[in-house]
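Structure tokens please, single chain.
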Amino acid sequence: MVQKAKILLVDDRPENLLALEAILSALDQTLVRASSGEEALKALLTDDFAVILLDVQMPGMDGFETAAHIKRRERTRDIPIIFLTAINHGPHHTFRGYAAGAVDYISKPFDPWVLRAKVSVFVELYMKNCQLREQAALLRLQLEGGESPEQNGAAVRESPGLLAELSARLAAVEEQAEALSKQLDDESADAAAVATAAHLERKLTGLRRALDALEPGAS
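Here you go.
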């Protein structure tokens, strides 16, 4: 069973959190509420999230300060942040959001369809990365048994069933990643999403080369 991705919703107003849940429920992922920046940072200590929807105007620690803390932590610095704001102070205000590490900056009231589409892209990227890590972990486990790279490779070659399974699972991830990249190109998606997808494809290429090198007859 594929584990659902977690999406962190941060807003000090319960009605806004309820509205976000209503919009994103169709994605069938795990939605986690946080009513303050402090609460969001606590949630990020223990859970991994595909994307964070972060309100800018909050009492105490506002969205900009919360984002700064998130980006300073090694564990959370790469999580995409989408800023949500009910006010628009012009280009300077928007620039501050991007400078704080946001991948997008959306003014309220926003189009539910647009928000859901943007979030779904980052959820898909997160899921593909999770699948890639699983394939890499399986391969590492097989390679750790021998005393040398040559012995490790021979051990995997002696298990053709496992090698075939790894290759098939990787092929499925490669196919999904390629389809996602084409979708991003067609929709002129955010530069951050396109860059993340390209990074994922580079990782997949490296893993494919490693698997191909283990095939019988490979030099």
